[in-house]
Fold this sequence. Notes:
- It contains seven helices and nine strands, in the order βαβββαββαβαβααβα.
- With 185 residues, the chain is α/β, with parallel strands linked by helices.
- It has one domain: 3-Layer(aba) Sandwich (Rossmann fold).
- The strands form two sheets. The chain has a five-stranded parallel sheet with strand order 2-7-1-8-9, with helices on both faces. The protein has a four-stranded mixed sheet with strand order 4-3-6-5.
- α1 (15-25) packs across α7.
- The longest helix has 17 residues, at 168-184.
- The protein is globular and about 40 Å long.
- The model has no long low-confidence stretch (mean pLDDT 90).
- It is found in: Cytoplasm.
Amino acid sequence: MSRVFVITGPSGVGKGTLIRQLLDRVPGLELSVSATTRAPRPGEEHGVAYHFLSDEDFARRVDEGDFVEWAEYSGRRYGTLRSELRKRTDAGAPVLLEIEVQGARQVLDSLPEAVRIFIAPPSAEVLRTRLVGRGTDGDAEIERRLQVAEEELAAQGEFAHVVENDRLEDAIDELVAIVRTHLDG
């Protein structure tokens, strides 16, 4: 199987920004498109940003064993479809999964050879500022995300690699170095 990289961390830590830069800097690395039950945000396309599924379809696919991992986060479900991962690994591509901590723990069970990377904020206050600044969630949702983040931050020790996203360029350089080391090794 091709190399699988798992990137996780709390909501608002900058995973998406780091991943976009990583994909630009590491040729051949592919991002697995996750499935979710949340509604698309403006500009998000089905099959590109996420596979947007109904609650019923997601539950059916969980029951049928279609997911490598799945988790519930802020009242919505997210997961990695086996077919999505298999399509990319069968083609020989190294694959990147952007998933929640809960899902990253499941991946450890099903794909112990996966390289697991935790993205951490420099502080809880910086994380709050980022969540507010992106303007995608109301106050109640931001508070829920911060409560979940507190639990997720406690899990960093479970990961082989922790990248602190304080200065974006430094975090990108560190992330690229981790991925290249595992691809070249």
